[in-house]
Amino acid sequence: MSKSVGKQASRAAVWVLMGLLILGLGGFGISNFGGSIDSIGEVGDEKIAVDSYARALRRELNAQQAETGRVVTFAEAEAGGLLEQVRARLIGDAALDNETRRIGISVGDARIAREILEVPAFQGTDGQFNRETYRFVLQQNGLTVAQFEEQIRKDTARSLLQAGVMAGLGEPETYADTLYNFIAERRSASLIRLDAAALDAPVPDPTEAEIAAYYQTNPAAYTAPSIRQITYAWLTPEMMLDRIEPDEALLRELYEDRIDEFVQPERRLVERLVFPTEEEAAAVMAAITAGESTFEAAVEARGLRLSDVDLGDATELGIGGAAGAAVFALDGPGVTGPHLSDIGPAIFRVNGILAARETSFEDAREALVDESIRDRAARMIGDLVNDYDDRLAAGATLEDLAAETEMELGRIDFTGEPADGIAAYESFRDAAADLAAGDFPELLELEDGGIFALRLDADLPPALRPLEQVRTEVAADWRAAETRARLGRQAAALAGRVATGEAFDALGHPVETEAALSRGGLTPAALGEALFDMAAPGETRVVTAGEGAWLIRLDAILPPDPDDLAAGFLRDTIAAQAGQGMAQDLYGYFAQELVNAVGLTLDQSALNAVHAQFR
After folding, report:
1. Is the Cα torsion angle 602, 605, 610, 615 positive or negative in sign?
2. Among candidates 340, 292, 290, 297, which has minimal Cα distance to 319?
3. Which helix H or strand E contains 451, and what residues bound it?
4. What gap in Å lies between CA 216 and CA 467, rounded to an integer?
5. Angle, to 10 degrees, between the axis of helix 145-166 and the axis of helix 82-103?
6. Could you say which of 336, 341, 460, 588 would form a disulfide bridge with 346 (CB–CB 3.0 to 4.6 Å)?
């Protein structure tokens, strides 16, 4: 068993390493630092190479960029603790490498060769290992053959040690069952809902004193958000449309370029089942024609699924030859064959017919005009960028740009939320959020090809709006709160009657029942929280929310549904995640203990040298 685990772990290490090389480092070109700087530190006798640290940093920066969709600067990574995380991981790996050497765990050349030969990135066009491709891929990622093979040797040996440390660590069943039973527990309840109609008398309008008191005790509800007063100049393709006349020749060219979109031949929804020989295909087709079998049964008999034989919406030309002609000769859905396809004898099933569609130039013209002039407007704006940049660099203000160019001036009280106009653009909202007082206006791009520049005029902190501005809102809120309070008192009175022995369904109000509810299955959220907060059947709670109140009684506490596949998956997921968490913690503690035992030294000058390449 341990041999199998070790083999899988070593292979995983190679694939991970290759993935990091090809995806994480492509095109970066980490260079050797040379000179006397060859490591950022040591764990025992194991050095942490500066190149390894640089590659790890680049890999993490690329991962952050892929996750966030924007370039993460080195300063942001440093402030976010990314550097410390990378160093901690490399220190842990070095500690394990030091330990594998101390206790004599090693991997032979034959194992390394087998791992390398199976990496697709090192294979040529014939699917076999190609030494020149191998060297080229490594060279592109700043590695020599010796460095790479030594890294695989270390990774494989390290994975064997990790497997040994975590061997026998199973899933924490008791923990998983406890958490699963809590999450997937179900409850049944009876509810009485009270709304404004249940009041003895309507809630009156609030007095001025009541409005003032409610306003003073709930200031957060009437406080305006912080506002950034911003002046901007912008130009979008939309603003340029009325200045552009459509070019008929260009429209015709655009129509021809996209003719496949406007003129589509008849297509059919087709499935193709291929056989080794024409005799087998003919026998299956005969059985289907005689009603002794079905196309679905034939697919299943071949060990396939319908998705495996689905060709989607195919054209006669796409199927090709006599097979295509036969498929398109069918008057409707049906099966035909056997016919010779490009991969062997096959039977075909047609599931639907999509009629041919042709949109004439005249019918498509309006859409083409809009697209072409918008594209031309965007290109015209692009041609103006250098001129506008030069004006800003020469000291022109936003007001100057608006007066002297096609750009338009505007002002906005920006709160950070999407709004009409320029605030509808995410690029503007991002720039407005990052803008600082004194920033020099620069041209930035909008998502539709437009451009803008902006200036921060003032930052206004959150401020309580005057009562005169929000009087109507305060009055409505007071009325809702008063309604809720009165209904809550009524519901509490009903709860008191239940406590003295009255039956729940004899309180004079309609009773709703809910059976086997899961967490989150009862709304509003406060009602669901109250249901799962009660300890024993028969307990009641009063819940108020919005302009209503509820009296809820817990009727039954039920275990998770054993037939619910989703619940079973949840239990397995909890167990797996808990097991992985324990394994990671154990590995972390073991690596840290190794570091403590042999000691750690870091070279700050080497770290600074690496960091300098990223700044």
Report:
1. positive
2. 340
3. strand 451-460
4. 9
5. 80
6. 341
